[in-house]
Design goal:
Layout: E1 11-19, E2 25-35, E3 38-49, H1 53-67, E4 76-82, E5 86-94, H2 100-107, H3 122-131, E6 135-136
Antiparallel strand pairs: 1-2, 1-6, 2-3, 3-5, 4-5
């Protein structure tokens, strides 16, 4: 079995809904699994809904391009799926096992969420999510 055993870990949820400039609706849900002050795993689900196929294709391509650099990082998994009226990007990151140096090589070291010991504090992550308009509970 791979990944983090999550059944006994507490979960913190952050959510946001919005309408894009091209009229699509978005629903973002971030589930943060944690142990004490530190994040162990995140599951992010970003859904774009539209009746316009061109808009859906644009978001599908955008998600695929954004996550392409991460595809060879173990314990950092992204899957983009489509339905007749939506594109869904699901990202699962196991912070106990992922190689943070590979993430930092892609994202840069400025303003990253990692502590000097390689861990991520729940407060740091939720502050980042709230900065982009999510509500957390």
């Amino acid at each position: 079995m791979t990944g983090v055993q999550t059944c006994a870990l507490p979960i913190f949820h952050c959510k946001r809904k919005a309408t894009t400039t091209d009229g699509a609706s978005t629903s973002l849900t971030y589930s943060i699994y944690y142990d004490g002050d530190y994040v162990t795993k995140t599951v992010s689900v970003e859904k774009v809904t539209s009746d316009d196929d061109a808009i859906l294709k644009k978001y599908q391509t955008a998600y695929e391009n954004v996550f392409s650099p991460y595809k060879n990082i173990d314990y950092y998994d992204n899957k983009v799926t489509t339905t007749s009226n939506s594109v869904i990007s699901t990202t699962v990151i196991d912070y106990n096992k992922v190689d943070i140096n590979k993430i930092i090589a892609i994202e840069g070291s400025d303003d990253n969420i990692f502590e000097s010991d390689g861990k991520v504090k729940k407060e740091t992550l939720t502050t980042l999510y709230k900065k982009y308009g999510t509500t957390c509970e």
